[in-house]
Amino acid sequence: MAVLKILKVGHPLLGQKARPVENINQEIVDLARDMVETMYRAPGVGLAAPQVNQGIRLITVDLSVGENKDELFILVNPEIVEESGKITAEEGCLSVPGIYEKLERPERVVVKGYDLNGREIAIEARDLLARAFAHEIDHLEGKLFIDRLSPLKKSLIKNRIKKEQEKVST
Ligand code: NI
Q1: 58-92 burial by CB neighbour count: b if 16+ within 10 A, else e?
Q2: In 10 A of CB 43, how many CB atoms?
Q3: How far does the centroid of ligand 1 lie from the alpha carbon of residue 95, in Å?
């Protein structure tokens, strides 16, 4: 297992739609394991393959950040097939470090996808888990959580990130 480099906002792959996984081979299984390791090390509660420079539809989610193995979800080609309710809470992203903003998401989602054995699974998730799935599946569409904020807020954040990145590089 390896800890992978997480791409940051501004990288073009984060703005691109990821392609479906057609064959769950050893490469995909290894990538998923590395993503879990990377997510735990960050630490974070979710990761999508494009964040580690792989433009494919694969996500990992674990609200317990490795404390409880029953809370780990690895999903291939996930999609939200049902959603209901609305809930606003603070959200962040490993690709947008240091930025946390309140964002409205569905209170409940049903996510369908495949596990690493190719079995179809459906998960009903609420509140924070629903938020995590919605956030990671957004990544597969090339969308960051800041893209869901108002244009004004988004441009303020982009300026702030730009200044931070300049500070780091000088
Ligand atoms: Ni994210």
Answers
A1: bbbbbbebeeeeeebbbbbbbebeebeeeeeeebb
A2: 11
A3: 6
Whole-number Å distance, alpha carbon 169 to ligand 1 midpoint, is 23
Out of 136, 141, 164, 166, pick the active-site residue: 136
Length, in residues, of the chain: 170
Task: Give the separation between CA 165 and CA 170, rounded to whole angstroms.
Answer: 9
CA distances from 133 to 32, 78, 168, 170 (A): 16, 9, 31, 36
For residues 118, 63, 99, 133, the Cα torsion angle rounded to the nearest 10 degrees is 40
Kindly list the structural domains of the chain, giving each domain's residue range(s) and its CATH number in brackets, ordered by start.
Answer: 12-169 (3.90.45.10)
Note if 136 is an active site residue. Answer: yes
Structure tokens at 61: 């989610």
Q: Encode the chain (170 residues) as per-residue pLDDT tens digits.
A: 799 999 999 999 999 999 999 999 999 999 999 999 999 999 999 999 999 999 999 999 999 999 999 999 999 999 999 999 999 999 999 999 999 999 999 999 999 999 999 999 999 999 999 999 999 999 999 999 999 999 999 999 989 888 888 887 76
Q: Where are the beta strands (DSSP E) in 53-107?
A: 58-62, 72-84, 87-91, 101-105
